[in-house]
Design the sequence.
């Protein structure tokens, strides 16, 4: 972003951050809402600043009145609440054999979802077409169920009056921020756009050529429009650039710019992250834990890390390759090229129907992680765990408890992730929502 170091840019970023803080408090308050004096007190902003921010947010349709608070002298203050269906976001999970899509509102509540078979090993163009078709089908399902209405593509397509794409909407960016640097530095931008946090920025390509826009989306306009698409995929990958690395078992994807390729097809802002990080972001936005690990045992094995209340991605956004710690030097070969990886051993135990051994192995890896990072909560997910959670929770908890007792460490909580099979795909949608609330 040109001029990023100037004082005007700093003021712009501050204003955008302040608006996000207000939106977060309104989201957390739910239907009861928050009054302007309460917003000022909780954010530390002046009453004048809060009034300006809330006025702009109301003009964008993001806020509504929620009744009046009891008077403490003088005119009773009016409570404001978030309007969840003012905007929506899509989450897209690309697994090795299945694609899942979900449409959520601003509160992160799912309003439509669907799944279909998917071949991650297919040629790139074929895989992209399948992913795009699933997004199109999701919007058609939402339109058919009457979630929202409007003219075909009017709020989704780029060009004339879009709240999402280039050229039309004003959005939260007018509160004084672009939501993130353009191009490669933005967590939410795609194709050089200013990013999802604008609500009205350029984010995706302009021009009205979207596969998802007019017509293809089944006439689904969503009133305020789509903010973008969060994509969760197997790692390793580069979250910042949106490029896949050498995904275990699928080396043909190495170096492929998945984020930009999908953004071009969808004509919407796209955010790409590892599937486990997407689930971890769900923990952050829900305030589930300050220090936690999400362990995902599905078609592969990985971890999403929450450290200090934030998703930890590492210097190269490649943290969490949990399944490729070597725990048996003379063990079986793994698709990553090593021998004795935890993922290979765990999946082999699952394949022979030995859940007890699979849980024991997962517990060994989890114990190593607890020792290394001093986390206080472990959450389990993925289709293999969710098919029969009890032996995995029991086995992992037992391994960690034994080690903690030997080291005189406090106990660590072990549970199944709250959103179950939807933890990853809903977390993917939150990749788009998080910057609006100064999260992630």
Sequence:
């Amino acid at each position: 972003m040109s001029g990023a170091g100037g004082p005007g840019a700093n003021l712009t970023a501050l204003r955008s951050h302040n608006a996000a803080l207000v939106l977060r408090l309104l989201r957390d308050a739910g239907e009861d809402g928050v009054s302007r004096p309460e917003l000022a007190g909780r954010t530390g902003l002046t009453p004048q600043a809060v009034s300006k921010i809330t006025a702009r947010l109301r003009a964008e349709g993001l806020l509504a009145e929620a009744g009046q608070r009891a008077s403490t002298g003088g005119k009773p203050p009016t409570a404001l609440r978030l309007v969840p269906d003012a905007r929506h976001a899509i989450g897209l999970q690309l697994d090795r054999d299945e694609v899942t899509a979900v449409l959520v509102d601003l509160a992160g509540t799912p309003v439509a979802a669907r799944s279909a078979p998917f071949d991650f090993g297919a040629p790139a163009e074929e895989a992209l077409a399948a992913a795009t078709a699933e997004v199109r089908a999701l919007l058609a399902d939402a339109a058919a169920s009457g979630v929202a209405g409007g003219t075909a593509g009017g709020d989704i397509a780029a060009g004339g009056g879009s709240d999402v794409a280039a050229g039309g909407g004003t959005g939260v960016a007018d509160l004084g921020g672009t939501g993130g640097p353009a191009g490669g530095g933005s967590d939410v931008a795609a194709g050089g756009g200013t990013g999802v946090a604008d609500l009205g920025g350029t984010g995706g390509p302009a021009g009205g050529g979207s596969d998802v826009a007019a017509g293809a989306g089944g006439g689904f306009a969503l009133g305020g429009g789509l903010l973008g698409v969060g994509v969760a995929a197997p790692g390793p990958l580069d979250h910042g650039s949106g490029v896949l690395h050498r995904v275990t078992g699928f080396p043909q994807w190495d170096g492929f710019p998945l984020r930009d390729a999908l953004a071009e097809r969808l004509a919407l802002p796209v955010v790409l992250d590892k599937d486990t990080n997407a689930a971890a972001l769900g923990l952050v936005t829900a305030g589930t834990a300050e220090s936690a690990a999400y362990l995902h045992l599905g078609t592969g094995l990985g971890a999403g890390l929450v450290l200090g209340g934030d998703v930890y991605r590492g210097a190269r956004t490649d943290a969490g390759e949990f399944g490729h710690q070597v725990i048996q030097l003379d063990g079986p070969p793994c698709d990553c090229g090593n021998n004795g990886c935890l993922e290979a051993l765990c999946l082999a135990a699952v394949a022979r129907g030995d859940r007890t051994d699979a849980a024991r192995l997962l517990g060994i890896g989890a114990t190593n992680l607890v020792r290394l990072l001093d986390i206080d909560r472990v959450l389990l997910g993925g289709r293999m765990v969710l098919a029969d959670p009890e032996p995995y929770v029991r086995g992992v908890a037992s391994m960690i408890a034994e080690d903690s007792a030997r080291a005189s460490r406090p106990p660590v909580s072990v549970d199944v992730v709250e959103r179950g099979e939807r933890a990853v795909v809903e977390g993917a949608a939150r990749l788009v929502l998080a910057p609006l609330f100064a999260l992630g």
About this structure: The longest helix spans residues 7-29. The chain has a mean pLDDT of 82.
